[in-house]
Each structure stands twice: as C-alpha cells, then as structure tokens.
Design brief:
By secondary structure, the chain is an alpha/beta fold. It folds into four domains: 100 residues, NAD(P)-binding Rossmann-like Domain (Rossmann fold), CATH 3.40.50; 65 residues; 116 residues, 3-Layer(aba) Sandwich (Cobalt-precorrin-4 Transmethylase, domain 1), CATH 3.40.1010; 133 residues, 2-Layer Sandwich (Methyltransferase, Cobalt-precorrin-4 Transmethylase, Domain 2). The chain contains 18 helices and 17 strands. The strands form four sheets. A five-stranded parallel beta sheet has the order 3-2-1-4-5, with helices on both faces. The protein has a five-stranded parallel beta sheet with strand order 10-9-11-8-12, with helices on both faces. Helix 7 runs antiparallel to helix 8, helix 11 crosses helix 12 and helix 15 packs antiparallel against helix 16. The two termini are 57 Å apart. In the C-terminal section; belongs to the precorrin methyltransferase family. Belongs to the precorrin methyltransferase family. GO terms for molecular function: NAD binding; precorrin-2 dehydrogenase activity; sirohydrochlorin ferrochelatase activity; uroporphyrin-III C-methyltransferase activity. Keywords: Cobalamin biosynthesis, Lyase, Methyltransferase, Multifunctional enzyme, NAD, Oxidoreductase, Phosphoprotein, Porphyrin biosynthesis, S-adenosyl-L-methionine, Transferase. Its EC number is 2.1.1.107, 1.3.1.76, 4.99.1.4. Then it catalyzes the NAD-dependent ring dehydrogenation of precorrin-2 to yield sirohydrochlorin. Finally, it catalyzes the ferrochelation of sirohydrochlorin to yield siroheme.
Length: 478
C-alpha cells in the first residue's frame, strides 16, 4: 500500500495553496468544503480564485512564495505551472515536516487528493496513488450512481441514535445485527422517500419492538425490456428484495439482476395461456408482506400505465401494508425511441394518446371520433388481437387509410422488429408481428425509415410496395 487512507479534520486549520489558477481553484474548493482556512500565494488570481477572495472565503497572503509562510501551516498544496517553484515548495515543506501535495506530480506528494463521493457525513474516497487518476474518477462515477443521495441523512440519523442503541443493545453482535437490518430495510426506504419523521418512528420500532414489524411492498417498473433502461432505484429494489413477483413481460436479462437468494414468483398474464388471476396476485402480496418480507412487484414498463399498479396499491392500503413505488420507462416511450419514432413532432403530432387494447368487459366504449383526429399519435398497448377492429373504427370515424403506422415487436430487446405501413394495412402488420407488440398510429410512424438507429436497418414501408409478393417479402425480412 503506497498511501495510508486517512480522513483529516481540516476545520479552522490553516492550509497554504501556492498558485491561483484553474487547477488551484479545484483544490481550494475541496479544502473550503472541508472547513479549512485557506491562504493563497500567487502572482495573480484567476477568475474563480479571485471571486472567492472578493467573497472573503480565502486569504491572499502574498504574491511570492517564502519558506517562512509554512511556519504555522497544517497542509501545503503546490498548484502552479512552474515546476521549479513547485519543487522549491516541496523541499521547504519536507524540511518542516509538513504534508505536501504537488498537483500532477506524484513523486512530490506526501499526501494525495482522492476521488470523492460525498454523502456527508458518509464519505467514500478512491485513489490509484496518482498512477491512474482517470481510472479512479471512472470508478467514482460508477459508485456515485449506485449510492443513494439519501445515505448521508441515513448516517446522520443513525449517529443521533447511536448512544440509545448502545444503551439498549449491550453486545456488539446485537448492535451490528440491528444496524444491518435497519440500513437494509424500510428505515432506509423512508429516508430515501424524504419521510424522515416516519423513518425515526421505524427506527424506534425496530429497536424496542422488533417482533411487531411487518414487511413492505415495492412496486417497480422494469421498463420495456432492455436491462440498461432500469432506473437506479429499480436496480436497488430488486437487489434488496426477499421475494419478487414478476410479470411475463419482464425479460430474463432483468431477472438475472435480482438478488441471487431471492424467491422469484411468476404471476404473468398472457393471452391464450394459463395465468395467475389478479385477485390471487393481490392476496399473495399481502400475505408475503405480513410475513415480514421485502416484496418487489416487478412489472414490465411502468406500473401505473396499464399495469394495474393502482389496483394493487389499493389492496395494500386496505390491508395496512406499507409500500413505495419506483416508476419505469413505459413501453410506448422506450419502444418508440428504439424504433426511431418520436411520439411527438412539431411538424406531425402535437399530442400523444396511450390506449390499451384490453379493457374490463363493463368499461365504457372508446371515443373513436376523438382518436381519429389527425396530427396526433396513438400508442396502443396489447392491441394486436384487436388490430382489425382498431383499423376499421379509426377509418370509419375519419382517420385517413393512408395514415402511417408501425408495429414494434419486442421493443428495446436484441430481437426487436419493426413493421411499417399504412392504417389500411394495420391488421396484416399486427397478424405477422411477434408479440409483445406496440401499435403506433400517426404521421410520426413514417419517420422510422429515416431515424431508425437500433437493431436491423429499417425495411421499406409496406405503403411503398405494389404487389402482394413484395409485401410478403418485407414481412419475412422483418
């Protein structure tokens, strides 16, 4: 180990920075954020450093460096573009046994600035010992994405309760188990949801009445299929779950990201095949949560857009089960984007309507006259079975038979297929399309030919074909 990682308390301690340019400004910013009293030696101050000087955030000590300036200094930073001056500062600091950092010169550093992830009071530092700073920065960026912004508040609350936990739990193993359970459970979820008062109530409950606690349900949108489209909250939820109830539309690649020892339960619904009834799923969510488990209800797309998420939450509310919601990228947004079809466009569509091809039998009829108006986009979920009816109704109510359409199958996945044509051909397109598929109706569908960027090159639109033989060849290619 070339450097021993240390966290130094710099509050109100004097730190000397030799240099006043852009590089010095970055180091000064870090030092000020740690509460240091910064003294600067520089012939002139750059824009950022001068602004801090005008705001009296630092002291411009002198224009020329002198060794006597090190007498009462805690740390030294040399950040000039003059290698001779930097070497002189390094030698003088070493003689006085002051810790010194010469920027971009590891050989002249008795301490280094790591890449920092700041979730104060929780701080994570990464260093390559000056050998590969870009690598350290890339690792920091990856960890930044994985560590919730709420961790700092979690640590702050835990610190406030630490003494009481010690008084109540006398053994080290008891306390360790308590904190592990707390940080990995509902307490942390409540802090992340900005419900700190409830979080403290949860902490108190876990400390004094742990046996009375129940589990919770997290309703998670898995997106349209590509695991890269999972949100960070979604990824954390499925990696912390005890049980995951998932739809048939959730891809195997996403299920691979679930915690290895979690229980996976398929509650998917597919037309023409055996499926779990919605009421059975509802009761299973309640039962598992009442057993104290962390349950994730994982749904394709977004749970609040044709995902019955609202229905399931109502059941949880009635049963007194705690829950939270993690939105997902809905199929229309994801599949259309991967097909190069903007759902709105200034020249073609000023509005977008999401429609489901499946409604409750007793639901009111669709307002086809409204949907048939031009210069709007219709995104129809689960509509392939009723494509013939949709086509006929829209044409009967005034939508032009030549309106561009696209059928996007298995959108955002590696085997995505896109068939394009006109409204008069919608039934044939839907019949040939692999499922699951999304119907896009509107002028924007024609832009697929120009804007497609994902998967196979766009095939010619069926609207440009002149014979049944040509039409069949396009379907087979798609």
């Amino acid at each position: 180990m070339d450097y021993l990682p240390l966290f130094a308390d710099l509050k109100h301690r004097p730190v000397l920075v030799v240099g006043g340019g852009e590089i010095a400004a970055r180091k000064i910013g870090l030092l000020l954020s740690a509460g240091a009293e910064v003294f600067v030696v520089a012939k002139s101050l750059g824009t950022e450093v001068n602004k801090l000087h005008q705001e009296k955030a630092l002291n411009w000590l002198a224009q020329e460096f002198d060794t006597c300036q090190l007498d009462d200094i805690f740390l030294v930073v040399a950040a000039t573009n003059d290698s001779t001056l930097n070497a002189r500062v390094f030698q003088a600091a070493n003689q006085r046994r002051r810790l010194i950092n010469v920027v971009d010169d590891p050989a002249r550093c008795s301490f280094i600035f790591p890449s920092i992830i700041d979730r104060s009071p929780l701080v994570v530092a990464i260093s390559s010992g000056g050998k590969a700073p870009v690598l350290a920065r890339l690792l920091r960026e990856k960890l930044e994405a994985l560590l919730p912004a709420s961790l700092g508040q979690v640590a702050e609350i835990a610190g406030n309760w630490r003494t009481r936990v010690k008084q109540h739990l006398h053994s080290l193993s008891e306390r360790r188990y308590f904190w592990e359970r707390l940080f990995d459970g509902r307490f942390a979820s409540l802090v992340a949801a900005n419900r700190t008062e409830e979080a403290e109530v949860e902490l108190e409950q876990q400390l004094y009445h742990p046996a009375s606690t129940t589990g919770e349900v997290t309703l998670v949108g898995a997106g349209p299929g590509d695991p890269g489209l999972l949100t960070l909250h979604a990824l954390r939820a499925i990696q912390q779950a005890d049980v995951v109830l998932h739809d048939a539309l959730v891809t195997p690649e996403i299920l691979e990201l679930v915690r290895r020892d979690a229980t996976l339960i398929s509650v998917g619904k597919r037309a023409g095949s055996h499926s779990v009834q919605q009421e059975e799923t509802n009761q299973l969510l309640v039962k598992l949560a009442q057993q104290g488990k962390r349950v994730v209800r994982l749904k394709g797309g977004d749970p609040f857009i044709f995902g019955r998420g609202g229905e399931e939450l109502e059941v949880l509310v009635n049963a007194g089960i705690r829950y939270q919601v993690v939105p997902g990228i809905t199929a229309a947004a994801g599949a259309a984007a991967y097909a190069g079809i903007p759902l709105t466009h200034r020249d073609h569509a000023q509005s977008i309507t999401f429609i489901t091809g499946h409604c409750k039998p007793e639901s009111d009829g669709v307002d086809w006259s409204q949907l048939a108006q031009g210069h709007q986009t219709l995104a129809i979920y689960m509509g392939t079975v009723k494509a013939s009816d949709i086509q006929q109704q829209l044409i009967n109510h005034g939508r032009s038979a030549s309106t561009p359409v696209a059928v996007i199958s298995r959108g955002t996945r590696s085997d995505q297929k896109v068939l394009t044509g006109t409204l008069s051909q919608l039934h044939e397109l839907a019949r040939e399309a692999p499922t699951p598929a999304l119907l896009v109706i509107g002028e924007v569908a024609a832009l697929h030919q120009r804007l497609n960027w994902f998967g196979e090159p766009a095939q010619p639109s069926l609207a440009s074909q002149n014979s049944p033989a040509q039409w069949q060849s396009v379907v087979n290619l798609a």
